[in-house]
């Protein structure tokens, strides 16, 4: 990384002060006590400013939602994670806006879903549906109301599959999911698709609940996913 103009100026001043100090010591140039004190303070301040700019210059850039690289134009950055066992809720972020999380207190057991406008990236709605102790009917009705061009992001928490039936799985598959047909009890799953999508979505991660490989007792490890969603064009 190249130093900014301000940082370069600090470097020049620091070098000048350091050079003057070295010369004064070599040739035993006497300085007034107050002048020496001021000079010392200037050298310390310049050094601190230089360190600040050097750290800032070498700090890696931060991209939207904390993803690993910037998205191209006409794409929306997103990052999401499933829940951790039945303790920590899922998190969904789009364009640096956290749409769902435990901190926002809008997540719950089952399937958590955020709807985003495919043209503008604006949040349309968030819902969660309890697939352990709840009813699948509200999920089915909600899926049927989603309009074409809507980005749909889903993440499981605790158990997101027990109450799923064939109709609910079919409606989610029509959004571009391939793993929904195999989603089982306490599996961890994150998915990003869209209403009216013509192909299967590339944005999907699924880990089976397996007592031999589970990270937590009774639950698999957290699933995380990030990427760039193409903006819907007219």
From TrEMBL:
Main subcellular location of this protein, as a coarse class: secreted
Organism: Prunella himalayana
GO cellular component, one term: extracellular region
Domain (ILEI/PANDER): residue spans on this chain: 109-196
InterPro entries given in the database record: FAM3, ILEI/PANDER_dom, ILEI_FAM3C
Alphabetically ordered keywords of this record: Disulfide bond, Lectin, Membrane, Secreted, Signal, Transmembrane, Transmembrane helix
Name of encoding gene: Fam3c
Identification of the protein by name: FAM3C protein
Keyword Membrane: yes
Gene Ontology terms, MF aspect: carbohydrate binding
Protein family (similarity comment): Belongs to the FAM3 family.
Transmembrane regions listed in the UniProt entry: 6-23, 35-55
Entry's localization field: Secreted
């Amino acid at each position: 990384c190249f130093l900014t103009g301000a940082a370069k100026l600090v470097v020049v001043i620091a070098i000048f002060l350091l050079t003057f100090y070295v010369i004064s010591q070599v040739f035993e140039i006497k300085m007034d006590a107050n002048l020496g004190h001021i000079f010392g303070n200037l050298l310390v301040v310049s050094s601190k400013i230089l360190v600040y700019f050097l750290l800032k210059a070498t700090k890696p850039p931060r991209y939207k939602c904390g993803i690993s690289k910037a998205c191209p134009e006409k794409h929306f950055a997103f990052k999401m994670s499933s829940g951790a066992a039945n303790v920590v809720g899922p998190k969904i972020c789009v364009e640096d806006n956290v749409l769902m999380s435990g901190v926002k207190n809008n997540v719950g057991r089952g399937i958590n879903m955020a709807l985003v406008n495919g043209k503008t990236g604006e949040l349309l709605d968030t819902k969660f549906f309890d697939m352990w102790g709840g009813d699948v009917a509200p999920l089915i009705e909600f899926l049927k109301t989603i309009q074409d061009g809507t980005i749909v992001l889903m993440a499981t928490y605790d158990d997101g599959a027990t109450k799923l039936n064939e109709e609910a799985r079919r409606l989610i598959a029509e959004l571009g999911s391939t793993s929904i047909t195999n989603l089982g009890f306490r599996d961890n799953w994150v998915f990003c698709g869209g209403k009216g999508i013509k192909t299967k979505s590339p944005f999907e991660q699924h880990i089976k609940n397996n007592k031999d490989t589970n990270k937590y007792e009774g639950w698999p490890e957290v699933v995380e996913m990030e990427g760039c969603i193409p903006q819907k064009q007219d």
